[in-house]
Amino acid sequence: MRDFITCLEFLTRIRFSHRTDWRDEDFSRSVPYFPLVGLVIGAFLGAVNYGLVWLAVPDFMRAALLILAEIIITGGLMYDGFMDTADGVFSARNRERMLEIMKDSHVGSNAVLAVVTLILLKVAAYVSIMPQELTAALIAMSVATRTFMVIFIVNFPYARKTGIGHMFKMYAKPVYTVIALALGIGITALCGLQYLAVMAVTFVLVFGFGKFLQGQLGGLTGDTYGALTECGNVLYLIMVIIGGRFLVLGFYTYHSIFSLF
User: Fold this and answer.
1) What is the CA radius of gyration of the chain?
2) Measured between alpha carbons, how far is 123 from 77 in angstroms, rounded to an integer?
3) Helix/strand/coil percent split, the chain, to 5
4) What is the pTM of this model?
5) Crossing angle, helix 131-155 and helix 222-259, to 10 degrees?
């Protein structure tokens, strides 16, 4: 339970303790429980969506409030990493300079453009998915992307010698990937088997982006974990939309063919 609380307090604004004796081992041992934190985040977002649908809030306003709800529970942690990564990777500088830019507290134009695009894509996805379906999709999405994060932490090299992300990486064990996948796949399956297919496709896409970042930076960092999570969130939602369209198309094709007989 202590290890779960550690990652819950780091990845969200939820607080159960006031510990000041954080050790690298504490962070590393918490890694396999990231999917459970994704479940907490997804359940919160799903509950907000369900409540807004019940109150008949217009779709665009509901989408905007879901963005606000995400920022409230996560503190914008993943957005911060996403923006820092955009500033560094798209600066067209050498590897060392990219890493320096990502540590700089100032926000550049690349970060602003990237986060505006990210939020627009999320809002568009929230509006495009059926309101009743979105609740389960938000839970599955949050669990899946936090599961991916474990894979990146454990199996990718770290680009710096120090850093917050390095604390998670330092004592992480290969078995953490197995535990996280078991949790992530199990929870996602409970949301609906179709979300497992979406999870698999999304992972392939995010994994490719992770390899790109590794090539640019010589490894991953805490910021890139956030960037990969946010990109994974958007890609997951897009795959849900595409998958739904294919199901509708398949149904009508099936119906049209058999109506001829």
Assistant:
1) 19
2) 19
3) 80, 0, 20
4) 0.90
5) 140
Nearest Cα residue to 199 out of 47, 38, 66, 59: 38
Residue 45 has pLDDT above 80, yes or no: yes
Which of 43, 45, 30 minimizes the C-alpha distance to 168? 30
Beta pairing partners, 220:
158
Place of tokens 């994060």: 149
Summarize pLDDT for 141-165 with one digit per residue, the tens. Answer: 999 999 999 999 999 999 887 777 7
Three-class secondary structure assignment of 126-154 = HHHCCHHHHHHHHHHHHHHHHHHHHHHHH
Confidence at residue 245, expressed as pLDDT on a 0 to 100 scale: 57
Q: pLDDT tens-digit profile of 2-21?
A: 788 888 888 999 888 776 56
User: What is the predicted pLDDT for the residue at 115?
Assistant: 96
**Tokens at 244, concatenated:** 């739904």
Distance CA(261)–CA(256), nearest Å, equals 10
Nearest to 144 by CA among 210, 71, 90, 203: 203
